[in-house]
Amino acid sequence: MTMIKVMIADDERLAREELGYLLEQEKDVVLLPSATNGRELLELVRKHEPEVLFLDIKMPEMEGIQAARILAASERCPLIVCSTAYEDYAVEAFGLNAVDYLLKPTDPSRFKETMNRVRVRLAQQNNRNAEREAAGLSAAASAAPAAGKLSKLLLDDGSRLVVIDPEAILYAEREDRLINIYTLQQRFTSKMTLQQLEQKLAAYAFFRTHRSYLVNLNYVYELIPWFNGAYNVTLKDEQRTQIPVSRSCAKDLLKLLQGQ
Question: What is the pLDDT of residues 156-166, one digit of tens each?
Fold first, then answer.
């Protein structure tokens, strides 16, 4: 029997105990230590490498959504099952490419459905990995897009629809009710919100450095200390564009760039 390493991230003790009890009834589940906030979650995921994460969307210190986006940029992102008391967060769960969306209190029969979906998704991942190994290809060399990744991004640029490669985006900035999206060659303007763009790019290495900026970490050249714990990020374009990093985001960005 193949065992599944599962972690719970929830700031409510009763919710953790409820999910923990249900998970302990599953014979193929290994229950890892639980996290009570987003920052603790990142540390525990790095240490224990869970395959599946039951994630509360709203948590203190760092919200579950933000922690999940940081995990999405890592090489070993667990499958995510969103768990929340609020139906309004279904869109956020979809943006994270979540396996399922559970409402609290957790219904046992609904939980069984979720675990079946988890097993199917894990089996699909294992099959893909086996096929790549048999063909002598690494995941990075595979021509097929990774699960949950948009191969192309469709933008409404006002009078036209533009198709761009997500990996070609350097950064995006919010300007009034629009966002400007920059590649090495040009700028695009879109009516979507920065949060919507961030959700679409959740499977790529993008990070929200500031409430008005979203940056592709693959184009980061250096970080320059600014003041009061904040930084400026310098990008690898010809202009060496600088993007602000707020004090609240700086610590997480530094950890991410250091591979922690």
Answer: 776 678 888 88
